[in-house]
Amino acid sequence: MLNEVQSATIDECVSYCKEKSVLGVDTETEGFDFTCKKLLMLQIGDKDRQYVIDARDTSLEPLRGILEDKEIIKIFHNSKFDYKFIKRWGGIEVENIYDTYLAERVLHCGKQDYGYSLLKCVERYCGDILDKTTRNKFVNLHGTPFTVDQITYGAKDVVYLIDIWKAQTEQLREVGLQMVSELENKVVKVFAEIEYEGLMIDEDKWTAMAEKNVKLAREQELHLDKLVLEHPLLSVKYATPIQADMFTPAEELRKTSINWSSPMQTLKLFRNLVPKLEDVNGKKLSKHRYKHKLIDEYILYKERTKLASAYGTKFFNYINCDGRVHTNFSQILDTGRVSSSKPNMQQIPSDNTFRNCFVAPSGWVFVSSDYASQELNVIAYGSRDPVWLEALRKGADLHGVCADLVFEQRWREAGSDLRKTLRTTIKTINFGLAYGMGPFKLADTLNISKSEAEQLIEKYFNAFPNIKSFLQKLGDFGKQHGYIITMPPFKRRRNFDTWYPKIWNDKSMMTELGSIERASKNTPIQGSSADMTKLALIYIYDEIQANYKNDVKIVMTVHDQIDTICKSEIADEWATKMTELMEKAALKIIPNGLLKADTNISETWEK
Q1: What value does the mean pLDDT of the chain take?
Q2: Are residue 17 and residue 153 in the same domain, yes or no?
């Protein structure tokens, strides 16, 4: 093990590796963007022998049989990164991946500051300290031969992987998390493929939309000025025109000096309306929006300016060297759900104005499938609530059915406008259950008092005692045990960092207990939904590999939706198959068959 550096041929590397059942694999690269930064080094081996391959002038083709072998386990740490570089620069799609980073996230999900880097894992499982000072010495090599330090550094990243794998495997078995680990290690390749493929963007269409949003934000700014000048408490104080050049149209000249993008200036102005207002962000401001038109319009202004800035032409900075947008997934959040960054494709507004700017290649179309009320189905199945189950079985309007039971005569005698309001109220509660919504959040969301929210929740649970019991059991379990699990068969586990055995009797921890209770209610709902979507991703990817290799590609996933592109001539056939696979995955967690998938074909990306 790292006794000395010796020369070897690629054939000797292949000969050694093909006899192994488990191998550690790592890479060193020029940078983070696989589309244009090159693969410099590939390291492969085990504790006894590590091969460090100069990928700049040595073809990886002889290793294809090993890396694509479905029996040999390839152990990585943060495999998505390595996978994309190996595929881009070696043309190889690695099979049978085990990711020590993901396994550690599975084992210690919920522990925020636990440390999931290879450095921490080596320290934790192997009692050694990795020296990472050489990490940044792989940039700008320009063909310079690797130094002994660089070779040794690369080899060390492989040495410990198998020992970590062995220790993690034992721990996963002890706490019953093998299935979750297998799920994550299978789906990681799918996420890597989605990141690798990326999405094409219509830049002209995006630019036109961005310019429109800038104009709307500007118009809203002028509208705020007008409201200030019309307000008896504000007009005299803030009526100070701003100088403009001679080319600015009169209707676009501002008549006040307030800088609406300054939180401090805006707060000072709003304190004329709400003297005790603490800030102009989030809930503290939102609860005043319906009492003061100016505040309501300011919130709209913030929404428009956010669209203009976050989704303006600066978004083009995310276009990679291949002309596509490639997001990066964080595969395991506390609940088991996935997040996306650089750019965050999950926060692209879902009204299709933005999504429609992402297009398929010529001759291809989008085929997208999402679950119909996924989280509501999880709640219905978990609670065994007869009303919810019957409504879902009949395909009835669940929110309307619930509103009828909660509001009774008021609902039945209501006109269309009031019915819409009452239905929205119930819809807020129904979906809020999946996020552990309490009376404070409900009050803020519906702009009602806390006591009204408490009465509404009490009335709701009187109508649906099974749901109340289901959520209460989840909350109590988390508070009693310090963790919560998702539904079978995966039983993903989320730990609560601040929990300890005597927390029940610690009055100073009441706020934390409330937080644990809310998380215990929503994690099984969100986490089971996440498990289902990940399983669907695996089913769909496997089907593509087996029967549609050159005709279909997975390009995105947002929570309960999976997006593919396929050749136009097989779109109908693939849409049928995709629906079948989505519903097959649903049956693993909700075996009653009530959760269905909606699949659509379109020229552009859609919600």
Answers
A1: 92
A2: yes
pTM over 0.85: yes
Spatial strand order of the sheet with 364-371 comes to 552-558, 561-567, 364-371, 597-602
Note the Cα 545 to chain centre separation in Å. Answer: 25
Tell me: pLDDT of 136 over 70.
no
Residue type at 167 in one-letter notation: A
Tell whether 336 is covered by a domain: yes
pLDDT given at position 435 = 75
Is residue 585 domain-shared with residue 436, that is, in the same domain? no
When pLDDT is averaged across residues 574-592 and rounded to a whole number, the result is: 98
At residue 485, the 3 state secondary structure works out as strand
Q: What is the pLDDT of residues 99-118, one digit of tens each?
A: 999 999 999 998 888 899 99
604's tokens: 């552009």
Query: Which spans in 38-177 are helix H?
Result: 64-67, 79-90, 100-107, 118-126, 148-159, 161-174
Neighbour tally for 92: CB within 10 Å: 19
Token readout for 596 is 């269905």
Query: Is pLDDT of 250 > 70?
Result: no
The answer on pLDDT for 404 being more than 70 is yes
| Closest of 115, 289, 304, 140 to residue 222, by C-alpha | 304
CB-based contacts of 537: which residues, under 8 Å, 6+ apart?
A: 187, 190, 191, 554, 557, 562
Mean pLDDT, rounded, for 500-515: 87
Helix (H) or strand (E) holding 364: strand 364-371
Residues 586 and 461 occupy one common structural domain: no
The answer to whether residues 455 and 463 touch, using CB atoms and an 8 Å cutoff, is no
Per the structure, the complete domain to which residue 150 belongs is given by 10-175
Domain count, the chain: 4
Separation of alpha carbons 568 and 551, rounded Å: 9
**Helix/strand/coil percentages in the chain, nearest 5:** 55, 15, 35
Per-residue confidence (pLDDT) for residue 248, from 0 to 100 = 52
Q: Is pLDDT at 569 greater than 70 in this prediction?
A: yes
Angle CA 133–137–142, to nearest 5: 175
Evaluate whether 75 touches 324 at the Cβ level (below 8 Å).
no
What integer pLDDT is reported at residue 503 of this predicted model? Answer: 85
Burial track 336-360 (b if 16+ CB lie within 10 A, e otherwise): bbbebeebebbebeeeeebbbbbbb
